From TrEMBL:
<protein>
    <submittedName>
        <fullName>DUF2066 domain-containing protein</fullName>
    </submittedName>
</protein>
<dbReference type="InterPro" id="IPR018642">
    <property type="entry name" value="DUF2066"/>
</dbReference>
<feature type="region of interest" description="Disordered">
    <location>
        <begin position="313"/>
        <end position="355"/>
    </location>
</feature>
<feature type="signal peptide">
    <location>
        <begin position="1"/>
        <end position="21"/>
    </location>
</feature>
<dbReference type="Pfam" id="PF09839">
    <property type="entry name" value="DUF2066"/>
</dbReference>
<keyword id="KW-0732">Signal</keyword>
Length: 375
């Protein structure tokens, strides 16, 4: 069976209602301040831009990684273009060339699909406190800091009802339940609460992050509110990156079965599994089966972005799996990876018409590690 154009159009155009993870735009574009446009100043700015990019992709500073020293000494080999904008130079690194070079150097990389972080930022000055909301004063500084550190940031509206809830007590509380209640409308993956205070000419902050069953906290300081925001976002990136980055060679073969899929979820799952080179092997009713190479823990962290729930082996009914195979009688036609659309099954039609079976059987446990998830 062959995929028809409608599936490809759906996968490219759909924005899944179930999706919380965000493909970060301009991941390979870095903005660095410069004092002038002199060659020496430009070369230093390119090295700083490379450092920023490596930290976005790995969670570690490039200066601590000897493997990338040759790249850092000559980052221009990875740059597709640069341009001056005001007092800054905007550097666009070539994604393919850069990723290949960093993986060849043995670095584990974090892809563009990242958890969205809803940030409750309460600032206190001598004039009082202010909750930073979307499109309000201070929001541009937070967005710039988040982009600089590679984080998909969301901000609340900060309307009157939210201002009444997001008090200093709620922002600094160990239990985030009060913030969780008013955060439901934003459907973000993570929750970041920041209490920022101006102390003389400088700023300091206490922050807490909750993401799934993980949480962390810390302190930050900066000479300005902009510098403080950058320090907070840097700390968040450093915490998150190890959970999602994929190390070359640190992978095993995995068969992934996902239950409860539909067309929108198919598109979302395709994006989430892209860093692992996933190949769609089988489609039947609302089941999708993939083969991929990944670390099981990294794959689990990635699937958590879509709120997928892992299914324990004792929860699977073997008879239902066997029945799907017995009722099908349709053989898979060659490689069913996303890169081989000519050989893919008519997945969209199958997912739109429950009960239509396209594959003769599901994978056995000897096909690498077997993981099952459901929506």
């Amino acid at each position: 069976m062959r995929v028809f154009p409608r599936l490809l159009a759906l996968c490219c155009a759909v924005v899944s209602a179930h999706s919380m993870a965000v493909p970060l735009a301009d991941l390979y574009k870095v903005r660095e301040p410069v004092a002038s446009q002199q060659p020496a100043e430009r070369e230093e700015a390119l090295r700083k831009a490379f450092d920023t990019l490596v930290l976005r992709l790995t969670g570690n500073s490039s200066s601590d990684q000897q493997a990338v020293a040759p790249l850092r000494s000559d980052p221009q080999q990875l740059v597709s273009r640069y341009a001056y904008e005001g007092d800054a130079v905007v550097v666009s690194f070539d994604p393919v060339t850069t990723e290949r070079a960093l993986r060849s150097a043995g670095l584990p990389l974090w892809g563009a699909e990242r958890p969205s972080i809803l940030t409750w930022w309460l600032g206190e000055t001598a004039d009082g406190s202010q909750l930073v909301g979307d499109a309000q004063e201070g929001s541009s500084d937070l967005r710039a800091a988040a982009q600089h550190r590679g984080l998909p940031l969301r901000l609340p509206l900060a309307d009157l009802s939210e201002q009444l809830v997001a008090t200093s007590d709620a922002i600094t509380a160990k239990d985030p339940q009060a913030l969780r209640d008013v955060s439901e409308r934003y459907d973000a993956d993570g929750l970041l609460a920041v209490m920022a205070k101006q102390s003389g000419e400088s700023w300091e902050a206490d922050w807490r992050l909750w993401l799934g069953d993980k949480q962390t906290q810390g302190k930050a300081n900066g000479d300005t509110r902009v510098a403080l925001a950058d320090e907070v976002m840097l700390a968040v990136t450093t915490f998150l990156a190890p959970q999602y980055r994929v190390k070359p060679g640190d992978r095993s073969e995995i068969t992934l079965e996902v239950l409860g899929a539909d067309v929108e979820r198919f598109a979302e799952l395709d994006r989430l599994l892209e860093p692992f080179g996933a190949q769609l092997q089988q489609v039947a009713s609302d089941r999708l089966v993939y083969r991929l190479n990944a670390s099981p823990e990294q794959l689990r962290a990635q699937l958590a972005l879509a709120r997928l729930q892992e299914v324990a082996p004792d929860e699977i009914d073997p008879q239902s799996t066997d029945t799907a195979g017995a009722n099908s009688g349709v053989e898979p036609d060659g490689d069913l990876s996303a890169g081989n659309a000519e050989a893919q099954p008519d997945a969209a039609q199958i997912l739109e018409e429950p009960g239509t079976l396209a594959i003769d059987r599901f994978p056995s446990a000897d096909q690498g590690t077997l993981l099952r998830y459901r929506w």
